[in-house]
Amino acid sequence: MEITIIIASLVSLIAGILITAFVLRKMIEKRNKNIILEAEEKAEVIKKEKILQAKEKFLALKSEHEKMINEKNSLLLKNESRLKQRETAFSQRIEELQRKQKELDIIKGNLNSQLELVSKKQSDIDKAHKQQVEILEKISGLSASDAKKQLVDSLKDEAKSEAISHITEILDEAKLTANMEAKKVIIETIQRTAAEQTIENSVSVFNIENDEIKGRIIGREGRNIRALEALTGVEIIIDDSPDAILLSAFDPVRREIARLSLHKLVSDGRIHPARIEEIVAKTKKQIEQEIIETGKRTTIDLGIHGMHHELIRLIGKMKYRSSYGQNLLQHSREVANLCATMASELGLNPKIAKRAGLLHDIGKVPDNEPELPHALLGMKMAEKFKEKPEICNAIGAHHNETEMDNLIAPIVQVCDAISGARPGARREVVESYIRRLNNLEELALTYPGVVKTFAIQAGRELRVIVGAEKVSDDEAAKISYDLSKKIQDEMTYPGQIKITVIRETRAVSYAK
Q: In the chain, how many domains are there?
């Protein structure tokens, strides 16, 4: 019984499953049909939309094409009307030319007839002239060619004498004018260019507050000062001078490095060899950067552009060089301004002159020390860094080391002399200055009859007093002349020296 029930239940379950499967299959088939129908409807709708879009695009392209065709047709019509107008104007021009040609033919005929009349009159005039010449030849007894030759010779002699006198006048006037103009240009150049002059030494002074700092700078057993001297190459002199230390060196760059390093060390308070080495290295970089900035600022101030960076660095280096006590950078700036002013007055290029004036002493600040005069060395450096030939020649020729081949060269030479000759611009070593004055006075004392000698005005004038009873007026003039020649031959001196020989007779009496 139970088996029968189980079998019946299984049969019922299987039947239910089959019926459910059949129903599900029918539902899926119906759903698939619906999806297919929906897809066909959507496809139809999309097809219609695409057809409409294609039609719209076709219509738009058609209208655009028709518009382009209309524009081209209108352009063709305009060109056609323009060509018709030109054709009309051309035909009118041809008609006008034909009319003018006819007028010219008429004028040509009239001219030909007039020329025939003129030629007839000319032949009549020639005949009359020939008859008059024959009459004059009979009267004077000379032929026309002889008379012409005599007239030409007389006129030639007269013209020669007048030309010679005129040339002499022009030359005299030109010399006078040239001297006046040259003096005017130089004076105006000097007056228009002002410069401050400073005297530079080989010693710098570093001020300190008290002796305690001086002891710290010296260090234990002098190790700090030895380290500083070794690193900077400067001799540091510490003596009994209160509140001061002397830095001695011929190289101003080294002196400046030592001075700045000392200032930083004293401000920082840490003074020992390792710190000194660190500070000196930083100061050297700072000075090098300052040199470059000085060169750039100088070229910008003077309006000079396009210069090689190495030349700019050398220009900045001039700040720490001196020539006869005159700061080299200030001297070069002054020469540049003088050259520009003088070139403008003479109608030359002031920019080239200014550039040559700034670079004329560039050979005094090389990184190495070649065995060449500074003018030739500066010329070679300028050539190396692609400066113009006239600038290179002006640099090399400003001390006559090479031949001048342009007008900028003598301007640089003159302006260099003007800058160096300004009062207070340069100084001599005291010993050589005193020696030169003594030599002047001793040279004058070698002449007989000389009583006293005085070198005055910084050696630019020598006054010689002679005894009136031993030397006559003529002999005094001869002493003055001979002494000037002897000084010129035997001594070296800047500028010129005026020799004044004084001879006087004094009559003295006393009223009691």
A: 2
CA distance 368 to 317: 13
Could you identify the residue written with the tokens 């009267």?
139
> Where among 366, 386, 421 does a domain terminate?
421
Parallel, antiparallel or unpaired: strands 498-503 and 461-466: parallel
Q: Which of 338, 314, 341, 346 is nearest to 328 (CA)?
A: 314
CA-to-CA distance for 408 and 394, rounded, in angstroms?
A: 6
Which of 142-156, 267-281, 460-474 is predicted most confidently?
Answer: 460-474
Q: Which domain holds residue 490?
A: 432-503
Statement to judge: residues 436 and 407 lie in one domain: no
Among candidate residues 251, 253, 220, 217, the one with its CA nearest the CA of residue 236: 217
Are both 445 and 417 inside the same structural domain?
A: no
pLDDT in tens, 277-286: 888 888 888 8
Give me the percent of the chain exceeding a pLDDT of 70: 78
Stretch (H or E) spanning 104: helix 2-140
Residue 55 pLDDT grade (very low, low, confident, very high; cuts 50, 70, 90): confident
High-pLDDT (> 90) share of the chain, %: 0
Of residues 326, 428, 317, the one with CA closest to residue 378: 317
pLDDT above 70: residue 249? no
CA distances from 291 to 123, 311, 369, 501, 507 (A): 91, 11, 19, 53, 69
Tell me the backbone φ, ψ of residue 199, rounded to 5 degrees. -100, 125
| Dihedral sign from CA coordinates of 415, 418, 421, 425 | negative
What is the residue type of 176? L
Q: Are residues 451 and 386 in the same domain?
A: no
- Averaged pLDDT, 507-512: 76
441 and 416 inside one domain:
no
Q: Is residue 65 part of a domain?
A: no
Sole residue written with tokens 């030309």: 163
Question: Amino acid identity of 250?
Answer: F
CA distance 376 to 368: 15
| Domain end marker among 421, 454, 485 | 421
Is the domain of 366 the same as that of 439? no
**CATH number for the domain that contains residue 372:** 1.10.3210.10
Phi, psi of 87 (to 5 degrees): -65, -40
Summarised one tens digit per residue, pLDDT across range 435-476 is: 788 888 888 888 888 988 988 876 778 899 998 888 888 888
The residue among 133, 161, 159, 157 whose CA lies nearest residue 146 is 133
Burial class (CB within 10 angstroms; exposed 0-12, middle 13-18, buried 19+) of 402: middle
- Does 335 map to a domain? yes
